[in-house]
Specification:
Blueprint (H helix, E strand, L loop, with lengths): L4 H15 L1 E2 L7 H4 L5 H14 L7 H20 L4 H14 L3 E4 L2 E4 L4 H15 L4 H12 L1 E3 L3 E5 L2 H21 L9
Helix pairs in contact: 1-8, 3-4, 3-6, 3-7, 4-5, 5-6, 6-7
Length: 189
């Protein structure tokens, strides 16, 4: 019998508890889950919402962009559907805020000053440009959950455990809604 997505995510949490870390690639189990229509956009918006409530902003411009993102997400929830024009405007402001690149010997590297704003930008990219690309959902999950620890490198460790658990809970709620309302599940989650 094949393991469910819940069992696979639970095994990631158990591995973190047992070994102290798990490889980021373990989150690739989400790709198949994102194949069902609406799930990827709902997940992206959920990640964007999570990103707006994280760390204290380092600067006034960052705080203003986080406030704009919160307002947009609240508007989307109130409307019950996406607002592409407002999403594109915010996406452009987010790209402009972190538009510094540094040339290294192997190419250009984008300088990211705010992980939260990058998560929101990537979530909006999914909603606006790639709503059917499960690979981007996996990448967004990996960026949200991934954590650097000198003992393990960048993978699933420390605070990653709780984030993987949060994703498992989101998936359980979404699947329960899909069963309870088979023709009425919103793309917003």
């Amino acid at each position: 019998m094949a393991l469910t997505i819940h069992q696979k995510l639970a095994s990631i949490v158990e591995e973190i508890d047992r070994k102290g870390f798990a490889e980021l690639v373990r989150l690739s189990v989400l790709k198949k889950w994102f194949d069902k229509p609406g799930r990827l956009i709902a997940f992206a918006l959920w990640i964007a919402e999570k990103a707006t409530t994280g760390e204290t902003p380092a600067s006034e411009p960052e705080a203003a962009l986080l406030a704009q993102a919160r307002a947009l997400l609240e508007d989307i929830q109130a409307r019950g559907d996406l607002n592409p024009r407002a999403m594109r405007e915010l996406h452009g402001r987010l790209e402009a805020f972190q538009s510094d690149y540094r040339s290294l010997s192997w190419g250009q590297v984008r300088m990211v000053h705010s992980k939260a704003l990058l998560l929101i930008e990537d979530a909006l990219t999914i909603c606006l440009r790639h709503p059917d690309d499960p690979r981007l959902g996996y990448k967004l999950a990996a960026d949200y959950c991934g954590h650097y620890d000198a003992r393990y490198g960048r993978n699933l460790n420390g605070p990653s455990r709780d984030r993987v658990q949060e994703i498992a809970e989101l998936i359980a709620r979404r699947e329960a809604d899909e069963i309870a309302f088979p023709h009425g599940t919103s793309i917003l989650g």
